[in-house]
Amino acid sequence: MPASPGLDAARLRRVLVVKLSSLGDVVHSLPLLDALRDGLGPDAHIGWAVERRFADLVRGNPNVSALYELDKKGFREVRDLGRRLRGAGFDAALDAQGLLVSGAVARLSGAPVRVGWDANREGNRLFLTHPVVPYSGRRHVTARLLGFCDALGLARTPPRPQTYLANAEATAADALLAEVRGGPIIGCIVGASTADKVWPAERWAEAARLLAADGLRVALLGAKGEAATAANIVQQAGPSAGVTNLVGRTATPRVLASVLARCAVVVGGDSGPTHLAVAVGTPVVGLYGVTDPERTGPQWGPAPAVVLDFAEADAPPAGRRPRHATLPDALARIPAAAVRDAVRSLLGAPSPQGTGGDI
Fold first, then answer.
1. By C-alpha distance, which of 199, 191, 255, 192 is closest to 228?
2. In terms of CB atoms within 10 Å, which end of the chain has fewer, N or C?
3. Helix (H, G, I), strand (E, B) or coil at 358
4. CB 135 within 8 A of CB 144
């Protein structure tokens, strides 16, 4: 594949990826790291600039030669990060975030070649030498990110399980999941960044009862702020459902990743933890209705996935806008039986072989 004019990957030996946040955005960028390493070779130096609170998602990645952490997005912190990056002698910076601060980091890195999106968000193009990666279009965000490979003339490679995350905290994950008694574990991510992406507690409770009837066991997963929701689900499900409440107990993203990797199936809405489950190679049931699964659905990973979207008629996915829900009851329209059926279908699907969806 020919590179964009003025770019020659053969001359790039030290490359910086700038993806500062958030959890889901960083996770969606991991296939790009795989492809860069495959294309640039084992001797290339690949650095990653990331906010410290998300650095654990990248730490230990075999494709990352060095991690450069940003404490916070303040002027002094960005300036200091730029000084550290300049000393690394990067040939090119890939701004995969495409915003003001990430553009400033790319520029301050001193890299003579700075590649980014063709969209001018927050004046980001002013920091770039090559604003050539297509941003618009109804494509999955992972496929969009792999456009950086196209710009450099590198091949796209199929997503593979991020085993460094799956095994990062194996001991802690095994200790938590030892509390789950019974059959295969179905991890249920009960929260999301906005309330309209959250499946109602009564639906979770009903699904837990249906899954228990199939000999499966539900483990509730989420942040400490979702403790009340989880307690409500456990109460409504009743003791016969055998629900294990692990909400607030996966202390770090790495522990969560290892827990998700050990689940037979994960069920969740459009959230960072759901995307993390996809990345570690666990089959996923995605609950959608507020955002477009074509752009942020779980089909991009190495394992099979099912999308449940019962709001398509009243809220066509192509017209949905993140953080601007068309329907307040979009996820509530998804019946518990549909989740049970989707889990059944995934349990009968082939195991992941390191090949993913069409990206």
1. 191
2. N
3. coil
4. yes
What long-range pairs does 232-236 form, CB within 8 A, spacing at least 24?
232/201, 233/190, 233/201, 233/204, 233/205, 233/208, 235/205, 236/201, 236/202, 236/204, 236/205
pTM of the model: 0.95
Q: How would you write the pLDDT of the chain (359 residues) with one tens digit per residue?
A: 688 888 988 899 999 999 999 999 999 999 999 999 999 999 999 999 999 999 999 999 999 999 999 998 899 999 999 999 999 999 999 999 999 999 999 999 999 999 999 999 999 999 999 999 999 999 999 999 999 999 999 999 999 999 999 999 999 999 999 999 888 999 999 999 889 999 999 999 999 999 999 999 999 999 999 999 999 999 999 999 999 999 999 999 999 999 999 999 999 999 999 999 999 999 999 999 999 999 999 999 999 999 999 999 999 999 998 777 779 899 999 999 999 999 999 999 665 544 344 45
300/88 Cα distance (integer angstroms): 33
Peptide bond preceding 271: is omega within 30 degrees of 0, i.e. cis? no
Q: 3-class DSSP state for residue 160?
A: coil
Tokens standing for residue 350: 């082939």
* CA atoms of 253 and 71, how far apart (whole Å): 17
Task: Please state, in angstroms and rounded to a whole number, the distance separating the CA atoms of residues 284 and 301.
Answer: 9
Single-letter amino acid code for the residue at 167: N
The residue written with tokens 């912190």 in the block is 77
Helices (H) and strands (E) in the chain, counts: 14, 12
How big is the CA angle at 216 (ends 335 and 180), to the nearest 5 degrees?
120
Going through the chain in order, the beta strands assigned E by DSSP cover 14-18, 45-51, 66-70, 92-95, 113-117, 130-133, 185-189, 217-221, 244-245, 265-269, 284-288, 305-309
